[in-house]
Amino acid sequence: MPELTNKIREVARDLLQQKKVDLVIGFARGTTPMCSTPCFVRQDGEVNGLIWDSFCENNLAKYLVKRSDKIAIIAKGCDARAVVELIKENQISRDQVVIIGVPCQGMVDRGMVRSALEGNEIQEVEEKDDRLIIKGKNFEKVLNRNEFLHPSCKVCTHRNPVIYDILVGDTVKELDTEPYLDVAEFEALTPEEREEYFSKEFAKCIRCYACRNACPLCYCQECFVDCSKPQWIGKTTEASDTAIFHIMRAFHLAGRCVECGACERACPMGVDIRKLNRKLTKDVKERFDYEAGLNLEEVAPLSTFKPDDAEEFILHP
Amino acid sequence: MIVESKDWKPKIVAFLCNWCSYAGADLAGTSRIQYPPTVRVIRVPCSGRINPFFILASLQHGVDGVLISGCHPGECHYLTGNYSARRKFVLLKSLLEHTGLEEGRIQFSWVSASEGVKFAKVIAEVTEKVKALGPAKKLVKSKT
Which among A187, A251, A317 has the least Cβ separation from residue B52? Predict the structure, then answer.
């Protein structure tokens, strides 16, 4: 990946030097291994702080909302889709943002890597092609990065940015998986089994709202969980309160969720949040033939309708 | 604690749009059509006005069933409110049932102002379905 890093720095330097943008949002090395962190570069002398590796997992589109300056953003497939949605929802204008697309091979889940090392402290991680070379005190281990991808990356169908002004690196082959296989498997369970699964998941939730804060498309001025007049939802971790919180959060993202998995990665308790979002994504695709964030023209499915939409769920229609 | 017994009557909240279903319910009443006394009607301007939170809050506060009823497609007083509602609620219903809510807890119908008979039929049917499901247990807020 050093080639990509160099190219990103070059592009960022050009943009800043030519004053085409005021700010470049990308990734910098984190304070610990496998922890790349979002980075804001305003001067061309700072571009060497930018990097690209297998741990650039945040969705940077989150930082575009409510900005008035001109911004260049380093965008993976999912970031680019989120940018498209934000443009469509008038949160940022297309001319305000320069999208530096980076085809993505999937990001590596550092939690999974850590658990594969059985508690050994990692001091350094190097990347060569598909290999992760992990070094620590008195040990060195080589892992195949493709076995440690984030769950959202494993089912990603848009690794190449759908929209970009500048593309860095070569496009990658899209995954050839059956879409929504995971959802179909879960749907096949009985309602009781599904309820049991979700009760267990929701019971972990501590209502910290990290999922909301990490989501690039959760940008409401006043979120429904903060709203107190009327207060629709209790603020406790009582079972029905958390269940309703998660259901409504997912529902607010119906037809908008770009499946970046930022919510799940941000969750400190490991709640399987994407299970809800994926179901809605599948429903929206099947019913309304719409996938979020693929182009700037299509109208969002819940902003429009067709007179002949299916209505098999209506009693005696 | 609600005791399940033979003469247990479910509590059903019905959100009825002002222009069609509410008038339909009114017609059922003025026509002296009999239907089960299980529904509590809440009049809303349009089925498109119904916030999904209305449904979830109802369930959380312990109703056994929720019915949403509006104008037939193409007959909305505000032209397209029921079309938007249809898209919204099909997703909500599907999501709730995905999380394990019993099918039939929330139901939808179109009842026009002239369909008093249909209103009575819908209420009878919804009541029967909810009765078969028994008292609601899922998403109900536990009392501390």
Answer: A251
